[in-house]
Amino acid sequence: MSFLQRLTTGFSASKIGTDRFGNSYYESRKTWLGYGRKRRFVLYKGEADPTMVPAEWHCWLHHVTDAPLSETKRHAWQQEHTPNRTGTALAYRPAAPAASGGPRPATAGDYEAWTPGS
Predict the structure, then answer these.
(1) 26: how many CB neighbours lie within 10 A of its CB?
(2) Which of 33, 67, 78, 111 has its CA 20 to 30 A from that of 27?
(3) What does the alpha-carbon distance between residue 52 and residue 115 come to, in Å, rounded to a whole number?
(4) Rounded to the nearest 10 degrees, how much is the dihedral formed by the CA atoms of 38, 11, 8, 36?
C-alpha cells in the first residue's frame, strides 16, 4: 500500500483488528452510497497477497459475520497457511511425460499424423 493510503485510512476508517500474519483490518466510518453498508478492507503487511487472509477474517471482510471469528479456536484438521506457489519452481506439476518434455504414451485408438501430399 502506498504511504498516502495508509495515512488517510485513519481519517476515513476505524481499525477493527490485526491477524496473526500482521495484516490490519478496517471498516469505513460512513455507509457507502449504493453499497448499503460500511466498506471493509485490509491493509496487508508486506506484499499484497490475498491468500494471506485467514478464513476467520475472510468471513468478516465479505459480510458473512458481523464480528471477526476467533483465530485461537483451531481444529486438529486445520492446516497452517502456505503461500500461492503458482509460477514458481515449487508449483505443482503432474507426473506426466508431457510436463517433462518426454514422448506422449500410445493409446488404443491412437491417431496417425497427417503429412502433406499423402
Answers:
(1) 19
(2) 78
(3) 52
(4) 10
pLDDT value of residue 100: 65
pLDDT tens-digit readout, 86-97: 888 888 877 666
According to the model, what pLDDT value does residue 74 have? 78
Helices then strands, each counted (H, E), the chain? 2, 3
Q: Checking phi first, is residue 36 left (phi over 0); if not, alpha (psi -120 to 50) or beta?
A: left
| Helix spans in the chain (H) | 3-12, 55-61
CB contact set of 106 (below 8 Å; sequence gap of 6+): none
Q: Quick one: which of 92, 100, 109, 16 has its CA closest to 59?
A: 16
